[in-house]
UniProtKB/TrEMBL annotation:
One of its GO terms (molecular function) is chitin binding. Residues 1-22 form the signal peptide. It comes from Eufriesea mexicana. Keywords: Chitin-binding, Disulfide bond, Glycoprotein, Repeat, Signal. InterPro entries: Chitin-bd_dom (IPR002557), Chitin-bd_dom_sf (IPR036508), Chitin_bind-dev_reg (IPR051940). Residues 28-88, 98-156, 161-229 form the Chitin-binding type-2 domain. Coiled coil: none annotated. This is Chitin-binding type-2 domain-containing protein. It comes from the Eukaryota.
Length: 231
């Protein structure tokens, strides 16, 4: 029994020394906590990072198209390369392409035209994703945005299906919200249209509220019983 305990203690000591030696050689800090998972940036390379799993240190590599900075994670602690700030660390952005994907991981426009959808690549497999209603994909920001933010590339009236009037009756409900007049979406209590600099934007009330087509205000669902199907 004593020999067994000594063997276990020796193995634990060797494991600790191996971890310490690896940390020294790789330039990584020792695992600060023997429990849990902790990831740390490599001091020189943005494509790799150190991972401590229950006190065990390993050198990990981001998938193609991803880099590590410790903020946000798309896959295995790594984020899209355009969202990572590497500082002085070197980043290899050489594409590893497959049909429909420049990198194994990434977001890409679905076409050269203004589009309400885009391509998300994961492990080299492209999947079509759709923006929320009324939004379009912006290749520069890698996000879905209001179509009027991409003028003249996008036509907000075509995307939203509404043309903003140049003026509204002075005593109308819409006039109360000028210069951002509001308008209902026929048959839809869940959304509304507002005009910004003459361009339509499709919105939702949020906070569990619904849009009243008479007052053009967002109200609690119990105040709009005819909108029960939109709750």
């Amino acid at each position: 029994m004593i020999e067994d305990r000594r063997s276990v203690t020796l193995l634990a000591l060797l494991a600790f020394l191996a971890s310490a030696e690896a940390a020294t050689l790789l330039g990584a800090p020792l695992c600060p906590d023997p429990h849990g998972v902790h990831a740390y940036a490599h001091p020189e390379h943005c494509n790799s990072f150190f991972l401590c799993t229950n006190g065990s240190l390993s050198l990990e590599y981001c998938e193609n198209g991803l880099l590590f900075d410790g903020h946000g994670a798309i896959y295995n602690h790594c984020n899209y390369h355009w969202a990572v700030h590497c500082g002085n660390r070197k980043a290899d952005l050489t594409p590893d392409s497959s049909p429909g994907c420049e990198h194994q991981f990434g977001l890409y426009p679905i076409s050269d035209a203004c589009s309400t959808s885009y391509i998300r690549c994961a492990h080299g497999h492209p999947e079509e994703e759709h923006c929320d209603a009324g939004l379009v994909y912006d290749e520069k920001s890698h996000n879905c945005v209001w179509p009027d933010q991409l003028l003249p590339y996008c036509n907000p009236e075509e995307i939203v299906g509404f043309k903003c009037p140049h003026k509204v009756p002075s005593h109308s409900a819409a006039a109360k919200f000028w210069p951002y007049p509001r308008f209902p979406v026929p048959g839809d209590c869940g959304r509304l249209i507002t005009c910004v600099d003459g361009n339509p934007r499709l919105l939702t009330c949020g906070d569990g509220k619904l849009f009243d087509s008479v007052s053009l205000s967002c109200l609690d669902p119990d105040e709009l019983p005819h909108c029960a199907n939109n709750v």
